[in-house]
Amino acid sequence: MPAQDLYLGRSFREAERAADVLKAPLYIVSAGLGVVAGSTSIPSYSLTLAPSHPDGVLGLVGKSTSEWWSAITHLSPFHQELPADGVILAALSGPYLGLVASSWGSWPRQERRRLRLFSWERPTGTAEVLAANWMPYDGRLDDVRTGRAGTKGDFAQRALRHFAESFGSGSGNLSVDAARVREALAPYTAPSTPIRGRLSDDELVKTIIAEWDAVGGRSGEMLQHLRKGLGIACEQGRFKGLFKEASATRLKGFLL
Fold first, then answer.
1. Do 248 and 142 reside in the same domain of the chain?
2. Are both 120 and 62 inside the same structural domain?
3. How far apart are CA 252 and CA 250, in angstroms?
4. Considering the domain boundaries, does residue 169 fall inside one?
5. Are 117 and 174 in contact (CB under 8 A)?
6. Which candidate, 248, 127, 11, places its Cα nearest to that of 115?
7. Residues 57 and 108 in one domain
8. 103 is in which domain, residue-wise?
9. Of 190, 215, 230, 242, which has the most beta carbons under 10 Å away?
């Protein structure tokens, strides 16, 4: 199916809206296929940069992500080079910045000046070569008055959309564009982040069972209850599996 129909979630929808605003082609940086245009027909696949995931690329090849990216962009029949002219607005998480940094950082200086990067933090480590291209969005984007609040997972794409809707494709000057972002964020304040305690999987399962009746056994309410009511940290993906385990354990107890 077309690549733009395969990828789901708010982060991808935010990137799509930014492309629509600019009437610009949409590309995806894929850990399994390389750079693919949104209109390109691609197969469904399961590859990720998560180091401990069974479908993690590092577990498959035992190489660095930059080495994997070099191989994939040379061998994948789906990989396409980015357009040779115009500004490139790229919303990437930290792992994906690390994936492309070596390749994109080797572009000639004039070529790199076309790039505007959007990510949660300023590029560091192997990605620091692209630090000058980073647009300085920060937690102030999550001030409810901006109308752009969201999660850390979709931060880069929300920042990209804000830039596209506020400044178009930019001024053509990196310093000017960075200054515009700082000025736009100046009236806002980053929300305070609650400090939540972490429990082991076994402890979380026991807590879910103990708090089951408090939320009527509803998973969505349980996650909010853990986070806001009990001050316990738990990622949504992790919670999903633990909630199923708690439900099965609770049911087994009733059957016994």
1. no
2. yes
3. 5
4. yes
5. no
6. 127
7. yes
8. 3-185
9. 242
pLDDT tens for 98-126 read 889 999 999 999 999 999 999 998 998 88
Mean pLDDT of 20-30: 95
Check the CA dihedral 112-116-122-126 and report its sign: negative
What contacts 34, CB < 8 A, 6 or more positions away?
69, 72, 73, 76, 78, 79, 80
- H helices of the chain, where? 3-6, 10-22, 57-61, 65-75, 94-105, 109-112, 155-167, 174-185, 201-210, 219-224, 236-255
191 lies in some domain: no
Measured CA to CA, the distance from residue 166 to residue 52 in angstroms comes to 38
Query: Would 192 be classed as within a structural domain?
Result: no
Length of the chain: 256
DSSP string, 128-191: GGGGGGB----GGGGSGGGT----GGGHHHHHHHHHHHHHTT--S-HHHHHHHHHHHHTT--PP
Same domain, 139 and 232: no
What pLDDT digit, counting tens, does each position of 193-235 carry? 666 678 888 999 999 999 888 888 888 889 888 888 888 888 8
User: How many domains does the chain fold into?
Assistant: 2
**CA torsion through residues 58, 61, 64, 70, sign:** negative
pTM assigned to the model: 0.75
